[in-house]
Amino acid sequence: MKHKLFSPYTIKNITLKNRIVMSPMCMYSSHEQDGHIQPFHFAHYESRAAGQVGLIMTEATSVLPEGRISHEDLGIWEDSHVEGLLKVTDAIHRHDAKAAIQLVHAGRKANLRDEIFAPSALAFNEVSKVPTEMSERDISQTVTAFKHAAERSKQAGFDIIELHAAHGYLINQFLSPLTNKRNDNYGGSRENRYRFLRETIEAVYEVWEGPLFVRISGAEYNDDGNSIDDFVYFAQEMKAQGVDLIDVSSGGVVPAAIEPYPGYQVKYAEQIKERVNIATGAVGLITSGNQAEEILQNDRADLVFLARALLRNPYWPKQAADELGYELEGPRQYTRAW
Ligand SMILES: Cc1cc2nc3c(=O)[nH]c(=O)nc-3n(C[C@H](O)[C@H](O)[C@H](O)COP(=O)(O)O)c2cc1C
Question: How far is the CA of 332 from the centre of ligand 1 (A)?
Fold first, then answer.
């Protein structure tokens, strides 16, 4: 059998050696609170690259200081951030893996001391801060911040950019009728709610020629929220704008109880892939080689993203290969154990 999990995948000018992606995971380890890379980050990302993950995606990296989820998040809002990130991509590339960066603005989910911003002045829950409603000027400055972040991502050697439009962060707050109550061009209809993401994608493409992914929350777990039909519409717009892949997660827009089970979000990736004819990534409780292979062979998604399984085991690709009976090449230095 030809294992799809270990087959290469080409998007634009980039070929991934396999379909395994390290899903973005905030590590809250920029302990100087200045958004800079710390020694922990090198070990964290390089070890998964040595473990033969095909694509390593950084944790959510903020395009503005007020867009951080916490004070310890990584940042890319100033040129001085490039140097550390370049060392991360060098380390990843040494293992023949590709490097992606997830760009974020947390909006109302920024857990910070200072003022926070969102499409509408609605707090996430009773204990979170009420954000300031963004003016059109704030919006255009934020779009520009994404563009500058994309430029710096290129300087830092990243192969792929992912925009974080999921989990209730700023872009998701614009997309969702639960969090966007604006009466201007950025709120109301689906078309208007999509405008912030549209302008962000356009701005990124002014400076970025490489593959662009967007992570969405394909379900909002609320009857008044976006439905899968709304996400099909957004995905069609993204496809028309040249987005290469939609990474489909779910939830986080408003508080909701979710009961996850193995592969609980795969169905959203599958529906978007089928209805929009765009490449998708599946994520969420994918833990075994067989499960990952099933998703790919049944054309339910094009890439599989793993988060916690890779935290537990940086050599998860080897574990999956053993399970599937595939002979995975390992780092030369580890041949005696491989
Ligand atoms: C510690 C941790 C941090 C996370 N941070 C991010 C993040 O920065 N960006 C993001 O899109 N998702 C984030 N997630 C969600 C994961 O990328 C993934 O979608 C989720 O954990 C489900 O996948 P899993 O079952 O393989 O862990 C995080 C998850 C964990 C466990």
Answer: 30
